[in-house]
Amino acid sequence: MQSATMSITKHKGLLELTRTLLLQQTMTSLLETLTQVVQGAGIADAVTLVLFDIQALDNKSERVSFYGIDPHHQPVSYEDETLLATGPVQALLSNPKIQVWRSDALHLHFPQLSALNLYPAFSGYCLVPLVASSGLLGGCEFTRQKATPFSEEDKNGLHELCMLAAIAVEQIQLRENAVFQQSQLRHERDDFRILVDITNAVLSKLDLDELTGEIANTIHHFFHINAISIVLCDADKDSEQASVYATHYIQTHVAEREQSRMTLGGSLEQQVMKSGEMLLTNARPSEEFRRDESTLFQLLWRDQTKTLCILPLRFGHKTLGVLKLAQCQPDNFNTANLRVLQQIAERIAIAVDNALAYQEIKSLKEKLQHENLYLTEQINSNNPDFSDIVGRSPSMSAVLKQVEIVAKSDCSVLILGETGTGKELIARAIHNLGDRRNQRMVKMNCAAMPAGLMESDLFGHEKGSFTGATAQRMGRFELADKGTLFLDEVGEIPIELQPKLLRILQEQEFERVGGNKLISVDVRMIAATNRDLRQMVADKEFRSDLYYRLNVFPIVIPPLRERPEDIPQLVKFLTYKIAKRMKRTIDSIPAQTLRLLSRMPWPGNVRELENVIERAVLLTRGTVLDLQLPELNYPLPMAHVVTPSVRESAPAPQLSDDDERERILLVLKETNGVVAGPRGAAQRLGLKRTTLLSRMKKLGIAAH
User: What average pLDDT does range 244-268 have in this prediction?
Assistant: First the structure.
């Protein structure tokens, strides 16, 4: 056999061989070319490459990459291979010289090579170092099946060939590294664009609903994840409740959103919040859904294995909640994507913190606005305090004793009495004498509030809960937290709203209209009515359980006609107060006037008396109160209002249709067409509002 050098030179010229090797773009094509060369020269049957990791060489932690071609001419490659690194190639690190081994000696010395099963059957093995301008690259392995050992000429020829191959390997590595760097730069650029887009999208949203929707849309757009949830823990540190904002894409780019509440105890979300570390796990279809899991989640993936990625939302030293992502294709959560998602979660945490702060500021601002509105109402309505309750008759003294007894407790109080007897004054006295005197007393007249708006006014509403709900609004129960809520004309509350009122009286918690978050309050309830609630309960117009809950401590205010001894004192008090307001000076009230006023029936009670005094003060030209007698004429008998403790035994006399029509028209004229309310025609006629409207319709009287 000719020498190896002569054989190779004869097979292909040195320059052309160099050109051919340098034209190879991949390790596989280079191996194919080298195999053709050595097989043509009859030197070896197979060629493999074992290349060092440059960084591993620097750290002296040897790892190698293996490149070969299997018997079916398919490329074989392994990266970060540690067993191969402990083979013959390890000796090249200390002594880069050609190694020649027989098969049995090689496997005896390096038994791990047999376990790898990377080489076809061979009898001879030759390892030639690959040295280029950058240093030692690794080794090129040649195996032959024939028993003839590698000669010196063979080794010299292979050494010369590997000098050229080392240059080609170095060029391929540089090219692959450049491609990798370009790819990495493209990924970094794409990741940067994603982060910029998400940052711009989320930081501009201050409303939580809009923010969570924008986050879901952006993550779905860039990562094609179909289930995105944001779980935010409650502000109360001791609470294990959290709000869930879930978005699911059951169809491509068609989002289904829902809000719910969940208990954090023992959940994966709580685990991530405590550890502050990302969690990646699989959930099998055999596992039952938690009871707080999203309904949309169950519909989307009931029978599929899904991969969950839960990332903490931390800002500063605060843990706000988690970002929960779910997908059936686990390859969406690769190393590159997870790194970007962690950076996204950091930016989402900033946006959520901003939104929560904005929400709190907005809530406080609205609360201040509502407080200012209610306080203005109270000031303008001229509500006097306890000292303005005038009357020392036995019946009023008994009422004031009851007020002193109940004021120190927090039990519900039901104030009963005819219209105009001063039920609001008694309610304010109870508040002022109690432990909540330093807090607000919020009031609401249920008769003056339209039934459709009463629930929203009492309990508040969320944005978008109904047409016209353009912003979140606090209800009167929230405003009265730690204070007192006074519900006047409580008998006018619609029957369908009464269960919700009963619940807050029992549980001290409620939900806003359109919301699902339980709000806890500490409110002392005082209610008042001029209607017979017992009869309303019998007529199925008022819930019996609500009546008993309100009627814990009833206080019945006597009508003015039952305490005539208080009228002179009331007249003097009202005259002084009204004259001072009108900047008049009235220092005398005739005794005849006081006796006359004390004999009147006063169906309108103190309110009617005040109106009479106000007109008298207005018409007085001197310093002596001038009460004109026509003011005290009652053209029609006033119907007696039934109190809860007294019921009429005889029915009212029946009037003809013409007389009844004339009577109703006259009362409507006196009340300026007002039917309902404490000064309405129904009250003055002693009828229910619905009964009066029915009779008006029957008699052909149009309602205004």
Answer: 81
